[in-house]
Write a structure and sequence with these properties.
Layout: E1 3-7, E2 10-13, E3 18-25, E4 33-39, E5 46-51, E6 57-59, E7 67-72, E8 77-82, E9 91-98, E10 112-113, E11 117-122
Parallel strand pairs: 2-11
Antiparallel strand pairs: 1-3, 3-8, 4-5, 4-9, 5-6, 7-8, 9-10, 9-11
Length: 123
């Protein structure tokens, strides 16, 4: 059984920073892609960022230049460094993973999901 567990969410201020972590257990994702998605109240889940096994990164236009995705394959952990936070970044953030293939922007392309962590940005 694969488990993804997010941590690091909480309350941030506009212009501030937060760092999310996603720890994988049950199998290694060293050869797979991982990604971050978010869902705000009343909205659909949207793509935030994704990273391949080799470290190729993809970002949504809304976070490009502010967020940085990274991973430590030895620790089976993925990170999302969020800088210059905006109130519109408020959402539940989910990490996702799949055992193979390229990173994708579609939530349906991922096999495994974490339970989500709340990020709230005050204005």
């Amino acid at each position: 059984q694969v488990q993804l567990v997010e941590s690091g969410g909480g309350l941030g201020q506009t212009g501030g920073s937060l760092r999310l972590s996603c720890a994988a257990s049950g199998r290694t994702f060293s050869t797979g892609a991982m990604g971050w998605f978010r869902q705000a109240p009343g909205k659909e889940r949207e793509f935030v960022a994704a990273i391949s096994w080799s470290g190729i990164r993809y970002y949504s236009d809304s976070v490009k230049g502010r967020f940085t995705i990274s991973r430590d394959n030895a620790k089976n952990t993925m990170y999302l460094q969020m800088n210059n936070l905006k109130p519109e970044d408020t959402a539940v953030y989910y990490c996702a993973g799949k055992p193979g293939g390229a990173p994708g922007r579609l939530a349906s392309s991922y096999d495994y999901w974490g339970q989500g962590t709340q990020v709230t940005v005050s204005s």
